[in-house]
Amino acid sequence: MQRYSIFSLARNALTGHRNWPQAWRSPAPKPEYDVVIVGGGGHGLATAYYLAAEHGISNVAVLEKGWIGGGNTGRNTTIIRSNYLWDESAAIYEKSLQLYEGLSRELNFNIMLSQRGVLNLAHNEHDLKEMSRRVRAIRGNGVDSEILSPAEIEKLVPAINISRDLRYPILGASLQRRGGVARHDAVAWGFARGADDRGVDIVQNCEVTGITRQGGRVTGVETTLGPVKAGKVGVVVAGHASVLAEMAGLRLPIDSHPLQAMVSEPIKPVLDCVVMSNAVHVYVSQSDKGELVIGAGIDSFNSYAQRGSWHVIEGQMGALVELFPIFSRLRLMRSWGGIVDTCPDASPILSKTPVDGLYFNCGWGTGGFKATPGSGWAFAHTIARDEPHPINAAFSLDRFTTGALIDEHGAAAVAH
Amino acid sequence: MLLIHCPYCGPRDETEFGYGGEADIARPLEPEALSDAEWADYVFMRTNTRGRFKEQWVHSHGCGRWFTMVRNTVTHERGETGVFGGVEPEADG
Predict the structure, then answer these.
(1) What pTM does this model have?
(2) Interchain contact A304–B (C-beta under 8 A)
(3) Quick one: fold of B3-83?
(4) pLDDT in tens, A359-414
(5) Which among A246, A253, A310 has CB closest to B44?
(6) CB-based contact (8 Å) between A252 and chain B?
(7) Does this complex have an ipTM over 0.90?
(8) Of A4, A383, A37, A20, which is closest to residue A201 (Cα–Cα)?
(9) Could you tell me if B3 lies within 8 Å of chain A, comparing CB atoms?
(10) Which of A46, A168, A324, B93 is deepest in the core (most CB within 10 A)?
(11) In this predicted model, what pLDDT tens digit does every residue of A329-348 receive, in sequence order?
(12) Domain residue spans in chain B?
């Protein structure tokens, strides 16, 4: 792998940027691997990277039905934070944030992490009390979080409408200063390049159509490029987890829903932190290009169509222009949808399954991007050791049988 | 937005309806006889079909009645609705 640096940039500039090597290979799948990862999104690529980098398992293939990072990895609003309520969530999301903080250096790939702060607004007395409880719990877990008064919010975000005359006035906010955004494509590409460099085969345009088993143990996968044998199979296919589970005769506690996001036309810098409101339901940040990146809620119905309903966008815009009247004349340039796996407790599943050697990583709902490195790190451990790491042990599939749910609907910040 | 054909009122915008998720999940008749795994299956596990999916809707801002609809979750083509206990369309999976 050619290291990226100011020197390699200068050297390649002299030759007109015609000699950059490909960042990863495009091999045909081999007949057999130690581990096959189904799904080449951020989480799958991170899993492959950490399998090779942390566990020395490099005879690994990532099979992706489209192109890497083309699903939810490339469709989210790129927000990163770890301000979750419960201890179990704090452990895995904070691990993820810490990995993000060192990721550009570790991968030698600029993921453009910008820790610009994530602000969660409170609009009534109940919100304020809930926020106070939440911030204390978060700080108790060693994660940074603080409460801001309306005056402090106005100082931080001058464009926001802090008037008490709003239908849902802003009475306070919690702020995680270490939260922020990153370049989502770069996260996928950086992990892909790092994994490829360690010997992982990344196979695009290869759809898994079946999971082969023998005597209660996984033996490989059927794909559109032929059968591939594998000692272990890790499934990381946000949106389509139930479809893959059915191939292995499993049922999951998941419903798939469309989730939409959109960007405005680019404007000069006006918003230098991420603003989220659970109550009126909006989350917005400004990209480096100047576009406002705005996320909507999920559509109520199950769908695999990667598109959502107009009335959801309409409701979203109502909330946005109420909070930021200054944005009311902006035009939207694009909107799009992805399919998210929602779990009954708004927490993910990173788990072994009743089939030996088959592992599922799914159910991240509306907030998977922030967890990408931590999810891959913990899932790689689960696959390599055939047992979960302590930070993902609570996110096993059997919590739906034992009843030990991890209710994070309040932290999800997206209604579902 | 979906155009939903309420079997009682006719075609209406989706915003008039509430969603009730997967249809035909019947409460167990002998709950005390169920194992934890069977409870988990009843309470949490879902078919989540990719294709023709049978679901239930309620016409909240209309007649207020529940009905079933079989809708393709990939194409969103017009769902065929049916009434509980009456003639109902067939789903995948």
Answers:
(1) 0.96
(2) yes
(3) Folate-binding fold (3.30.2270)
(4) 999 999 999 999 999 999 999 999 999 999 999 999 999 999 999 999 998 765 55
(5) A253
(6) yes
(7) yes
(8) A37
(9) no
(10) A46
(11) 999 999 999 999 999 999 99
(12) 3-83
